[in-house]
Amino acid sequence: xIAGWILxxxxxxxxxxxxxxxxxxxxxxxxxxxEGPIGPATSDYLTxxxxxxxxxxxxxxxxxxxxxxGLDTAMREIIRDILASPIPVAGWVGPSGARAASAxxxxxxxxxxxxxAPGTNLxxxxxxxxxxxxxxxxxxxxxxxxxxxxxxxxxxxxxMMDKVMNDAxxxxxxxxxxxxxxxxxxxxxxxxxxxxxxxxxLDLGVIDLVARDLPELLxxxxxxxxxxxxxxxxxxxxxxxxxxxxxxxxxRLLQILTNPNVAYILMxxxxxxxxxxxxxxxxxxxxxxxxISLLLALYAFQVLPVNFAGLAxxxxxxxxxxxxxxxxxxxxxxxxxxxxxVAGAVMLMDTEAPGFTISLWLVGGVAAGLGxxxxxxxxxxxxxxxxxxxxxxxxxxxxxxxVVHWSGRQGVxxxxxxxxxxxxxQVLRPGMRARVTGRxxxxxxxxxxxxxx
Length: 453
Hints:
The protein has 14 helices and 16 strands. Helices cover 46% and strands 18% of the residues. It is rod-shaped and about 125 Å long. The chain has 453 residues and is of the alpha/beta class. The longest helix is centred in the C-terminal third of the chain and has 27 residues, at 360-386. It has helices spanning 2-17, 40-55, 72-84, 103-110, 160-179, 183-191, 198-203, 214-221, 249-257, 260-279, 285-303, 308-327, 332-348, 360-386, and strands spanning 28-35, 60-66, 89-93, 99-101, 113-116, 121-123, 195-197, 209-210, 225-228, 231-234, 241-245, 400-407, 410-415, 418-423, 433-440, 443-448. It has three domains: 23-140 and 152-250, Alpha-Beta Complex (2-enoyl-CoA Hydratase, Chain A, domain 1); 259-386, no CATH class; 393-448, CATH 2.40.50.140. Helix 2 packs antiparallel against helix 9 (249-257). Strand 2 (60-66), helix 3 (72-84) and strand 3 (89-93) form a beta-alpha-beta unit.
């Protein structure tokens, strides 16, 4: 009997874990927010979100979108997660007033279900120049234009933007055909930056349905059939519990760090903190803060589309400003350093995607702040050149001493509370005030003060 009982338990566990007897999906739909620019933080948040959905056996994943677009690399990571997901994914642009522009349009096309709320829009999916080569579309000959000697003009070579445009158009066409949506308009959104409202998108077959809110979305997609891999699955969404999944602390921290403005400030803090530590060894604080800030900035630049020429210009600008403080080039190195910092900041982000450019206000503020410090330093240097010498033999020239004892052309004077031997070319009397004109060893050279001084 014991052997039979053990065999029964083992058989029960084996059948439970058998691929053909997988656990039934839970009765909930996980809702993830794609709000604001799409970047590394967004892709990390969704990658871990899809893993959670698989662990919890969610019945449906909903992506609620309101985005102006973002980085191509982050968008493709999200789309790879959608295409590899064993759980149906519904993209919903909402609430009313939201949009799924640029990268958001690609993500909506990749979703198993594409839906929008009334008063929303999608489109404008033209790619922004990325990758360090700002090339423009190749020049094209106008009809009838010939080359030399009347021969037909050779077609222009495609530029970098032509390649990027063709790649983006092919990608969104492939997504449209995979999901059975309007591929012609998808290409138009890429090449002509076309946009559509929710109702127009539904009429043209760009989306599957219009839903005012998420409960209505669940009601309308109940019973629809979607393809996941090679299987066709009928959705059973009626009565599913909606569970919003907010970004955790890691996603929020990554979102802050990958903000180009924050990364730029962290890099400046890091550079000057380390320089200050070398300038004043033993302070510890500036060095620690600088090292941590610099490492965080380098991490952010690793996941952002950074132009390394801009990064080098920023480092050069910081070095020139430090050199100005040590060498005193009357502002030449300082002005060159500020110009390098400004140029580097403008060039730093190698994309014009929304939310991933350096704010010109920040660049102007940094330049104005460093310029003000430079002017203050130059003013202090100018004042120091007209200031009396504070140390050394030259310091006593022009000061006043009091005659204590005098005989002939030499005597004793009191200077700054001390008794000094003195001599003069004129006869002096005790109690007179005399001006010090020089010093020879430990003997002061004096002359009588003119009357009235």
